Amino acid sequence: MTNSLSGAAAQQIPGRFGLIGGVGPDASSDLYLRVVAAYQSRLRGAYPDVVMHSVPLPARLEEAFVRGHFDTAEESEVDRLLTQSLDVLEASGATCVGMACNTLHTYLRPLVRERDIALLDMVEAALGRLRDAGHRRVLLLATAATVRSGLYSDCAADFGVEIVAPDEAGQKVVQAAIMDLLRFVDPAEPAAAMREFAATLPSDIDAVLYGCTDLTVLRNHDIFSVPVVDSLSCLTDACVDFLSRDGVTAAS
């Protein structure tokens, strides 16, 4: 898998991983539990060095980025909240940070570049996974904000991948599914709606990317006829690779 570590501290020896949590809570806790389980498996029972700060994200901001309509004041508030979280994690001794939210990477990336800390970039991790699996034309399912930002499409060519967005009707289905999952609706309901949408996909799509971590809970539902790549799983692998480098060396 591609090394998605970026930032000023990219060459530092792995140490403490700082998790920016709360965006959203389910994805953050899922990421933490997955990292612990994978790390234990790789290092024969050891626990990783992880510290998490849960961002106090107001519901109105969460709904705004799902809809894709941040105004200037909301963008400033997001910057402030992420800066606060980075301050906490950097003070804790974290040498690397990650976040279980695709959309807010637009705001996180420039903030990390100003610090002596590295970023495990979920977008780069997912694109690397798509490339390594041989997927070339991929449908991105994500918030409107992620789709419009070009987070995936702007750098996909560097990985030999073409990112395709849903049409307007399809994006509405995706938006509704994300909002339902944020409200803890039974996943079977959005899964059923997504299954109807899946029947309309072009035949030249060879994979689907869950570019929103709230969609992760649908990974065990039989929805698409093509492979599904889950961005949260890609970030999990990147985290474990970062955290286990010292441990693997010490155990060998």
UniProtKB/TrEMBL annotation:
Signal peptide per UniProt: none
Keyword Isomerase carried by entry: yes
InterPro entries: Asp/Glu/hydantoin_racemase, Asp/Glu_race, Asp_race
Pfam families: Asp_Glu_race (PF01177)
Keyword annotations from UniProtKB, A to Z: Isomerase
Family note: Belongs to the aspartate/glutamate racemases family.
Protein name: Aspartate/glutamate racemase family protein
Organism: Streptomyces gamaensis
